[in-house]
Design goal:
By secondary structure, this protein is an alpha/beta fold. The protein has twelve helices and 19 strands.
């Protein structure tokens, strides 16, 4: 009863206030009929509080998300199944599922009655325009009497997680560059053993067969070296996402960083479908080897949470990529670069890796004055030229560009960009 009294609604408290006022008026005026009205007004909220306060329903709730992983801008369906496990029917139930602000307003559903051992399902849809992982729940059940005089809340502790992943754009088929093309197709291939005179070796480990010792390498390095186990030909690719906050411009879903994240997701999914052994590296410390069965989901889940970081420098990203660099194909989604930063990326050409850069012209995501735009273009061209001179293939990306339209340039190279950058260098040299 005490809990029920605490749950009185504004209407219930108004009834009690009216009852007290009627009782005081009846005592002053000596009107017995007015006293009967006061008793009736007081009894109604008290009965409602007793009815709701003593209701001990055993309810079970199950929530399912269809799907639990959805792209930005798409909807997900949330299904709630509520079952009355007790032998008594319930009264009116108000269901409210708690949601973060990014998923919209909290849905409210009214169940008039749920019989003994009876179950009922309700559904609603949510939509997010921002990447991330969002907690759905817990479910709050509000029990009330038929007159709305008393209301108590019960909450289920369970929650579910909705992952909003970046948009994945289907990419057209293109002949991808690579050092090794043993099959003659568009895959970048690598092989562990090239021959007796150029064997891939490693340091001797306790237990290695001495018959695998490679004496030429041992004599050259001064340490005992053994041949590696022969490995089958395989396609390897690394997708690199630049997360430097100062390398990107714009805000919200239309920012240059969001374009880069969506492009990284699209390239990663496309390469995995083409049979590549894929690795994803970001400046935020994410280093994912997508070799598992749900490799696409693993990559997309990581990209759902990646954010630009003001503390990240390009040298950190390059060092992270080089920690396990093993050749193959490297595709980098890069923000604005200085010439010095572009020269740092030359180190990724080790092991004769084929490097392709989608270089974002971040200044096009802003409305800059003519002079500032010209300076930004010169800085962009200088960085592109430095990448080209180190052996990178460079594809410029302006605001509004579509990845599907730029993707064929990965196979054709960056001749147009190289000509533009070379002309800029020639003009600058003539001025000097």
């Amino acid at each position: 009863m005490r809990e029920g009294m605490r749950g009185l609604t504004t209407r219930g408290r108004s009834f009690l206030a009216a009852a007290i006022a009627a009782a005081v008026s009846a005592a002053i005026l000596g009107e017995k009929d007015l006293l009967r009205v006061a008793v009736l007004l007081a009894v109604l909220p008290l009965l409602a509080a007793a009815y709701v306060g003593r209701s001990r329903y055993k309810l079970a709730c199950n929530r399912s998300l269809e799907p639990h992983r959805t792209p930005v801008g798409a909807s997900s369906r949330v299904v709630l199944r509520l079952q009355n496990m007790s032998r008594l029917p319930t009264g009116t139930l108000l269901l409210e599922d708690r949601l973060p602000y990014a998923l919209g307003s909290r849905p409210r559903v009214v169940l008039e009655r749920l019989g003994a051992q009876q179950a009922s399902s309700v559904a609603y849809t949510v939509r997010a325009d921002v990447r991330g992982r969002y907690e759905v729940g817990p479910l709050v059940v509000r029990m009330t009497d038929p007159f709305g005089l008393c209301e108590l809340s019960r909450a289920f502790p369970s929650t579910d997680r909705l992952t909003v992943i970046p948009q994945v754009t289907p990419l057209p088929s293109a002949r991808l560059p690579g050092e090794y093309a043993g099959s003659g197709d568009s895959r970048a291939r690598s092989v562990a053993v090239h021959g007796e005179d150029d064997a891939a070796t490693r340091e001797y480990r306790m237990g290695d067969d001495l018959r695998r010792v490679h004496w030429k390498s041992t004599a050259r390095t001064g340490e005992l070296m053994v041949r590696r186990e022969e490995q089958p030909w395989e396609s390897r690719a690394t997708v690199v996402l630049d997360t430097r906050a100062y390398g990107h411009r714009g805000e919200g879903p239309t920012a240059s960083f969001e374009w880069a994240v969506s492009a990284a997701a699209s390239v990663a999914v496309h390469l995995r479908q083409a049979g590549y052994k894929l690795r994803l590296v970001t400046g935020a410390g994410v280093d994912v080897n997508a070799d598992a069965g749900d490799g696409d989901g693993l990559i997309l889940d990581h990209l759902a949470e990646v954010r630009p970081d003001k503390r990240i420098e390009l040298s950190t990203l390059v060092q992270q990529v080089r920690q396990r660099a093993d050749g193959g194909l490297i595709i980098a989604l890069l923000g604005s670069l200085s010439t010095a930063e572009a020269e740092l990326l030359a180190g990724l050409r080790a092991n004769n890796a084929t490097c392709v850069a989608f270089l974002l012209e971040s200044s096009t995501w802003l409305n800059l004055p003519t002079k500032a735009r010209a300076e930004a273009d010169r800085a962009h061209d200088a960085a592109a030229l430095a990448l080209l001179q180190s052996g990178w293939r460079v594809i410029g990306v302006e605001h509004g560009a579509r990845l599907a339209g730029l993707w064929p340039q990965v196979g054709r190279g960056s001749q147009g960009f190289a000509l533009r950058a070379a002309m800029a260098e020639t003009v600058a040299g003539g001025r000097r």
